[in-house]
Amino acid sequence: MDDYAGRVLADRYRLPRPPADEFELVETRAWDTFSNQEVLIRQVLLPEVVSAEPGPHQGDGGDTAHRALEAARAAAAIPDHPRLVQVFDIFVEDGSVWIVSELVAARPLAAVLADKRLSPYRAAEVASDVLTALRVLHAHGWVHRNVTGGTVLVCDDGRAMLSGLAVGAAQEALCGYNPVPVPAMAGGGEAPGGGWEGPHSALELERARQARLTVIGPVTERWAPEQATAVHENWQLAPPVGPAADLWALGSLLFRSVQGHPPFPEENTAELVQLVIAEPPAYAEECGPLRPVVESLLRQDPEERPDAEELRGWLRSLVRSAPEPDLGLSTVPVPADDPHKLPVVRRRGELVRRRKAAAADPVPAPSAHGRHKRTKERTQRSARGPRSLGVTLVGLVLLLMVAAVLYAVLFMPRGGTGDDEGAAGATRTLPAQVPGGDDRPQSTKPRNTGSPATKAPRSSAPATSAPPPTRSTPADDGAATGLGGDFRLRTDPEGFRLAVPNGWQRTGRNADGQVRYTGGDYQLLVVPGRDTVADKGSDPIVYQNDEPELAGFRASGWSSASGLRRLDMGGISAAEGEFSWSDASGRQLFARNLVMIRDGRYHVVLVVGPDGRRADVKRYFEKAAETYRTT
């Protein structure tokens, strides 16, 4: 109660004491003395010309106050839903309407966006929860009219909730508009304010226009084109405000969440209203896969916007296609276990304190509870338990190690294929160079590409059986290497050799030092020693982060990286990674990249293809990386 030492509202709700240099907050926590629970109280100020007390209406001011109170109470009567914040109480005091709601363990979306922008997929998750709440309101005939970054709450568990319905209804009633739907009016028997339906004359409309510009302010989400047209000079041509206005607000909120700024400038309320009516919104260039959804929701004509069911399908498909989170360079390797340390296993109740021999007593001292009494013999046996258990564990571990070694010696194959796609400390084995200018691999053990059909058979021919190819023209000698019928070993004039799929065309070395092999939608890029270690440093991971061949990945608004790791390739320092991004034309690309340091220079092998054909990209890359040699 010391935290709530401020004023008391309605003889029930205790507010916290505000700091000396601040006014009381418009939205604050409070303590409900009736239920002994924390609640959230929101203040809606009434204009000075409006009577703050409901009851006998005296003139237009009293009617307006009564309409605001009844509109908020009608909004609070909607049944509870997991995606809607509950409203407990609504009352008028000291010239304001006070709305009491539940206190949710969440942050407003505006506070989340102040720290960082959302990714398109995370924004789709939040929008899906908000759309669920809007569908409930629309089913009861309500239009929320207050979907903003302050009313969307992001909970600690990741879900989103929607609040602010009662506040928005009270504000709309204060501005001269009736937010209560007809079914809600029929349920109460009479519309709030005695059948009031909104402004009818030009004078009433001008008052409503000025009031809404002042009360709502420059918030893009609350100025859908049909709402902005209602306060414009051509108000009689404005379409009715319906569920499409909430979907427009949701599209504007998605734009703000991903782009980091609203679709229209918000310096002045009147200018914002004029821009919403006359100008299209800004381009959603950084929304990635969410861009078509945002642009369709921000259409000016309400009839052209997607309905809630269609939008729900789009958002669900986006959430389902979201990539798995990738830590990338932020991954912290777990230190290796010390083989000299064994775990200490204790059973519950076996850890007891030994008494000194001089103070030994055949009868244990009485304890507070009879179930804790033990004899001396049982105490000593329990104390010896962990030591004997540790000796047993050591014996079992030694037996398991001996059995594993015997099994490996007797039953494991001598020359099978291996998989080096393990942890960050994996080792890639390269064949040794053969003296005499021919560096054909002595061992043709292929890398495991994940498909039995792509594993090449072992070659029984010696590595020096074929003469070294010339450097003048690329040579096709795949038949002598055991690569199979899909690949040929090509010796390139630029001083390297690697396996290339049959039928791929070679493009000469360009100004960036790249040699390209192209086959349909796939490309194989080789950079044979363009950069030196003296210029770029000796860390292949750092070089891969700034590699010119991955400039499209770094420039893309939607991209992800995985499998970034260092490799030990027979004493050669190297790095490897997988990258996916969207190019300027909207195509989704996937690439496998390998960086090696040979003779003080960086060599790059990169295979790029469609994101939907990752298996083929990995297959081509495995063959090229396994057989790449300098000549």
Automatic annotation (TrEMBL):
Annotated TM spans:
389-410
Q: Where is this region: Disordered?
A: 349-385, 420-486
Sequence ranges assigned to domain Protein kinase in this UniProt record: 1-315
What does the UniProt keyword field contain?
Answer: ATP-binding, Kinase, Membrane, Nucleotide-binding, Transferase, Transmembrane, Transmembrane helix
Domain of life of the organism in this record?
A: Bacteria
Tagged with keyword Membrane: yes
Query: Pfam families under this entry?
Result: Pkinase
| GO MF annotation terms | ATP binding; protein kinase activity
What SMART domains would the database entry show? S_TKc
Q: List where Low complexity composition bias occurs.
A: 359-368, 451-464
Which family does the record claim for this protein?
Belongs to the protein kinase superfamily. STE Ser/Thr protein kinase family. STE20 subfamily.
Query: What name does UniProt use for this protein?
Result: Protein kinase domain-containing protein
Instruction: Tell me what organism the protein belongs to.
Output: Actinacidiphila glaucinigra
